[in-house]
Amino acid sequence: MVLGQDAEGCCPTLLSAPMSEEQAVDLAKVFKALGDPVRLRLLSIIASRAGGEICVCDLTPAFDLSQPTISHHLKLLKQAGLIASERRGTWVYYRPLTETTDKLAAVLTGPGSVVAAASAEPAGAAS
């Protein structure tokens, strides 16, 4: 998945230039996948796992949901390009696709962004 690139090969931020229709469609797919609390938690669990991957057998107990429901959410995260999977015997292992999350972060923040500038302001500083 390509979230969009500028002339230097980097993703434009939301503040730097209007995005194309194609970029908006691609980005909306990622946001839609992240728009569900279960999927957001799944991505967080997968991405924060030591070793960079986790078995579905370790994901299911973290939720009060059936295994098919968890598999459905994982499928949507995979279709959005946020995770990858590999079958090993009867189990499936998931890992984050950091290139997608890195591009998403770059689109939302970018170098010198308002978010970065706001976090660098001293406490109590008025704008």
Automatic annotation (TrEMBL):
One of its GO terms (molecular function) is DNA-binding transcription factor activity. CDD domains: HTH_ARSR (cd00090). It comes from the Bacteria. Residues 19-116 form the HTH arsR-type domain. Keywords: DNA-binding, Transcription, Transcription regulation. This is Transcriptional regulator. The lineage of its organism: Bacteria, Bacillati, Actinomycetota, Actinomycetes, Kitasatosporales.
